[in-house]
Amino acid sequence: MEAYFQQLTLPWIAAAFLFAGAVIAVVGTVLTGLVDRLADRTRLGEAISGGLLLGATTSLPDIVVSASAAAAGHADLAVSNALGGIAVQTVFLVVADMAYRRANLEHAAASLTNLFSATLLIVLLATALLAATGPDLALWAIHPATPALFLVYLLVQRMAARHREEPAWIPAETGETVRDEPEARNVRASLAGLWLRFAGAALTVAAAGYVVAQSGIALTEKTGLSGSLVGVMFTGFVTSCAELVIAIAAVRRGALTLAVGGVIGGNAFDALLIPISDIAYREGSVYHAIPAQPLFLIGVTILMTAVLLLGLLRRQRRGIGNIGFEGVLVLLLYALMVAYLVFA
pLDDT over 90 for what percent of the chain? Predict the structure, then answer.
């Protein structure tokens, strides 16, 4: 399939790229409703369902892109796709915040699970940065940080689930807080039917992600653009369109915790694309195969996530453009990151 895309002209590559992105965005709307109903039917709650179900499903295209790029020897594109997706999805959360007019979204959708997810993302990215700047170690071409990242993800998710049942910290409720409460019609829905429809949507998203992966690799080789720029501006952006659609659709459904949890939880899952890329990359440790630009991207995404975490803790009710201070800073950091990649 990779050879087939290499034979296509640039306009056809761009057309396949955009069509696959459109499929991902459209199916994202369907996923929003399904996961919202599954959250009520399974009693998992919107934050956990958004972080695990939506996060994992909307990350399928990114997994395909990063794994395919790494297996083809494009370490720069593989890692930058993951980081670009995290960065642009954080920006999409700000866009969803703009669509919610009653209050700052981070204030209205207060959730302990989302705080866990944001903290988890910082830990995962910081660990990847330490691996990339530390000794070049590898066993069977896999860095020791790779299994450690998977273990950390599982442990923190287990911790978050336990604290949801017996929270030691509860956000204060205000007039703008929207509680995550199950709807009666969702509780009565067929669980098997919901899971089957969810699986069908997930497979569709994964197939579209494969087209994005192959067209992204071909785009990198035919245009001569850096893997970091293609990963952030093209593959990372297109595969993240589902998160934008999902976040806005969830806000319109009143599922605010699902909107925030889907983005932050998806970002935490996307951080696992780095160790996945390390497994797929057979020329050694992927952490030490990337140039300086992806390392810069890791630093920026850590800073963006830390700012978002401050916003979740501060819970500013209103701010400039009906978004909090964290939204303004996230937009500024993303603009600076893109400018660096374009002009560096």
Answer: 23
Query: Using an 8 Å Cβ cutoff, are 229 and 341 in contact?
Result: yes
What single-letter amino acid sits at 256? L
CATH of domain 2-343: 1.20.1420.30
Q: For residue 246, what are the contacts with CB-CB under 8 A and spacing of at least 6?
A: 28, 29, 31, 32, 54, 58, 259, 262
165 CB-near residues (< 8 Å, 6+ apart): none
Q: What is the mean pLDDT of residues 3-31?
A: 76
Please provide the average confidence, as pLDDT, over all residues in the chain. Answer: 80
Gap between the Cα atoms of 28 and 4, Å rounded: 28
317 vs 298, which has greater pLDDT? 298
Those residues whose C-beta lies under 8 Å from the C-beta of residue 248, and which sit 6 or more positions away, are 95, 96, 99, 259
Residue 85, pLDDT > 80, answer yes
**For residue 227, how many other CB atoms are within 10 A of its CB?**
24
Q: What is the reported pTM? A: 0.81
Domain segments of the chain: what residues? Answer: 2-343
